[in-house]
Amino acid sequence: MSLVTLKSGMANVKVINDRKEREKQDLNSLSKEELIERIHQLESHVVQLRNLLKSEPSIKEGNKKSKQFDHKRYARRHVLLQVAYLGWDYSGFVIQEHTEKTVEAELFKALEKTRLVESRETSNYHRCGRTDKGVSSFGQTISIDLRSNLKEGLGVYIPEGHQLNANSKKEENEIAYVSILNRVLPPEIKIIGWSPVSTTFSARFDCKQRTYHYYFPKANLNIEQMKTSAQFLIGEHDFRNFCKMDVGNGVVKFNRRIMDIQIDSMEEKINSYSMFRLKLVGQAFLWHQVRCIVSILFLVGQGKEQPTVVQDLLDVERNPRKPQYGMASEIPLNLFFCSYAEEDCQWIYDAESLRFVMSGFQSLWSENNIKATMLREILTELEKLSNCRIESQIKSLVNGIEPKTYVPLLKRQKCESLEERIEHYAKKKRIEIIDDETNFTS
């Protein structure tokens, strides 16, 4: 409101804009119903203005014309990327409808932002493994077609409809894929290295073997008993009692081969807080297979089961139905290596990019190790105050409620057999088909 103040003797006089005064007089002459209607009109106008402001870009953005990137001016190259990630705060590797917090979603955000791919649909993409919620990886791999500076070379091709710039100089250096992607990826997800591969190469189907690591504190575990029990797993077996059956996705064969299994200390001095690592090498794994194996080995290490229980569970003729037991936690699990034939894959690691990744992961290590050290000191003081020590460090690593009285595995309630699951799923599909046909005819 425009105000002019005049000083006349002892009095201050405010002169109000004539238009405002007239509007005030007009409002005074309106009835209550007319005033309410006027308010509704003004509120509606305000809403319209707000929506208009939201839909229109700012002046700065409006004047800034983004240049359309033309992917058809570039060749493509089929490559293999080694992806490391800490999956503790992610809902798994694979993209999901109900959340954007997946490793794969972050990867494609980075790939599209850096214009290395036009879209996932046109990228000839394969992943080696589907790690679950909370699971990490040092050696996850993906095969994918990326934009290339080159016109020839292993994995390089020119898609149909692409027209390269004939006047451009012949490029001798490939795009720095690792460095470019790591600058835009989150701190918990980084590319370690890359390899050019043939255009028909698949990260999933050409993988020769996969290595998982599982980390755990010694606590009160008998490591030697666990090692003895673990050796029964080596070789080809039916692992239906060591996994979650995925009949709904067509998995009805549960034979897998484990090449090696090792349990080693990661520290020189051994006590209940010392960290151990279980290393498991196989060609392929079933859903939750590693976590089920670790859970059984924990029971052996605690003295609740004999080492031969692994043999009993592998004998599916005598024990065709899996006993109910909780899986080991997903947090300590890491898909550590995905191995390929040397003639198919030659990894390229850049020292500068590795230093960048190391620096970032060191920051994460510092934050987490400080927390662990603080907790360790608190526990030491609590032990002094209570004048006792307890060894329940793995309690949080096994899902489910611990019963007061332990029931041996082979005496527990059993899950459905494979045949029962198949029949149950087939019946469910028949009902769905009948429902669909009924809805269609109606």
UniProtKB/TrEMBL annotation:
Pfam families: PseudoU_synth_1. GO terms for biological process: mRNA pseudouridine synthesis; tRNA pseudouridine synthesis. One of its GO terms (molecular function) is RNA binding. One of its GO terms (cellular component) is nucleus. Keywords: Coiled coil, Isomerase, tRNA processing. It comes from the Eukaryota. InterPro entries: PsdUridine_synth_cat_dom_sf, PsdUridine_synth_TruA, PsdUridine_synth_TruA_a/b_dom, PsdUridine_synth_TruA_C, Pus3-like, TruA/RsuA/RluB/E/F_N. The keyword Chloroplast does not apply. Residues 230-340 form the Pseudouridine synthase I TruA alpha/beta domain. Residues 13-52 form a coiled coil. The keyword Hydrolase does not apply. HAMAP family: TruA. Belongs to the tRNA pseudouridine synthase TruA family. This is EOG090X083V.
